[in-house]
Write a structure and sequence with these properties.
218 residues; six-stranded parallel β-sheet
């Protein structure tokens, strides 16, 4: 049996969620709260498996309550159920320890599944929110994986692997050591270094090491 507390300031929604949730015999609503402070205090009393938490509530909002609950009751899962699809709200809630974030337009079966999944420790985020977040992360990662330097007025990009090799050259590692570290053949390392030196219009790996330090590539 999964025990939960509902934190929702609107009475009609609170009662509706309770009725929907308790149609499932595996979940029991042990208490309801009208704000985040009440939800926190009820966690002391009932030690629920999960709190179904609205964000916009008086006295203490859902984000603040999530943080308090996670500090004092880390085993209690918090599933945000809100109307807000704002990226900042999602980020702040998850940063404060929320185990999931779903929107109030969710279907009955999806809500039950989200509660069960979150109570088992699975991170749940509404697909409409997750897709843009993943896209942004991919864009950020793509930016981080390359570094651009100017050579003779032309922008030259170095990949993440090339930068790792340059770092190891600066550390004094030879091709064999670099290959072993990256799980690639010594000949492949040699070819990559030759390409890097050519890209940067340098003469040898010694110049490459000096260039890397001077231009903060490592």
């Amino acid at each position: 049996m999964t025990t939960i507390i509902i934190a929702e300031d609107q009475k009609l929604l609170r009662e509706s969620f309770k009725n929907i949730i308790e149609t499932n015999s595996d979940i029991k609503v042990v208490a309801s709260a009208t704000n985040g402070k009440e939800a926190y205090n009820l966690c002391k009393q009932y030690k629920p498996d999960l709190v179904l938490m609205d964000l916009c509530m008086p006295v203490c909002n859902g984000t603040e309550a999530t943080k308090l609950i996670k500090i004092d009751f880390p085993s209690v899962k918090v599933l945000i159920l809100t109307a807000s699809n704002d990226k900042e709200d999602v980020t702040e809630a998850i940063s404060n320890g929320a185990d999931g974030y779903v929107l109030k337009n969710i279907g009955t079966e999806e809500l039950i599944l989200s509660i069960k999944s979150a109570s088992l420790g699975l991170g749940i985020v509404d697909k409409d929110l997750l897709d843009p977040l993943v896209l942004n992360l991919r864009k950020e990662n793509k930016k981080k994986k390359k570094k651009t330097v100017q050579v003779s007025g032309i922008n030259v990009s170095l990949t993440e692997r090339e930068l790792r090799i340059v770092t190891m050259i600066v550390d004094g590692k030879d091709n064999k050591e670099i290959g072993a570290s990256l799980f690639i053949a010594e000949g492949t390392v040699k070819n990559i270094i030759t390409e890097i030196i050519s890209k940067l219009q340098l003469k040898d790996r010694t110049q490459l090491a000096v260039y890397a330090v001077r231009n903060q590539l490592v």
